[in-house]
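A protein record pairs a chain with a discrete description of its three-dimensional fold. The following entry can be read in just this way:
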Amino acid sequence: MEFLKILKRRSFLSEVAYVILNITLAIGVVLLIRAIESPWPAIGLVLLSKWRVLAVRPRYWFANVQSNLVDLIVSVSFVVFLYASYTSPATIGQKSFIIIVLTLLYVGWLLFLKPRSKRSYMIAQAAVAQFVGVAGLFMLAYDFPLIITVLFMWVIGYSVARHILSSYSEETHILFLSQLWGLILAEIGWLAYHWTVGYSVLGVDGVLLPRVALTMLCVGFVAWKYYDASYHDKKIRRNDIMLPILFTFGIIVVLPLVLNLLGIGVAIGI
């Protein structure tokens, strides 16, 4: 009985330590960006926090890196969002509000969403990673050569597809399907590099949310519904994908047209 009490106590202490370390990481990233006004030290801190990925024999490194790519994409994107917010021409109040919201969302990712392993949670993790990854990338894409943007889009697509497919135990084509989704994102990335628009957050010009992130989230939702229906029923029924397709069409095409008809200036683009 005493042994069980010790185990419970250690488990409780480890949970407390886990919570404190993750909150400290989020706050540390914010303080680094504020102190140095550069995203690179904060990205370095994020990479350093993933030291356990390489704390194994070298032959396991590649597998560990692949398994942690989704978390890494979200963490690096958080740094990009914070840096864009801090260096924007917003007022102090607007900056503080955006930074607090971003920090709370990142803490929520670290403590509540990332540790979950059920399929529904893994799908949500992949959706978050794709959305924030694409958004963060296109916040910086104007500074990158085209090939770098396309390559990063492929990495994001490959990572999120692999993350979802690994939750389907009977799937035998994970590598091929992950590379295929990476290729689709890379092609969209090439097009969006030349023709994309963004929405300002809180009316702040320096903090823009690229529409391509929302577009690819919707397209990804349709692709997942198609795959899930095929996986479970071995065929695609019209009702399984009709609503997702209509929803995606509405977000990508109809919504900008309606906003323009209402007099709200929205550029047409990806």
Remarks:
- The first strand starts at residue 198 and ends at 201.
- The chain has two domains: 1-115, 119-270.
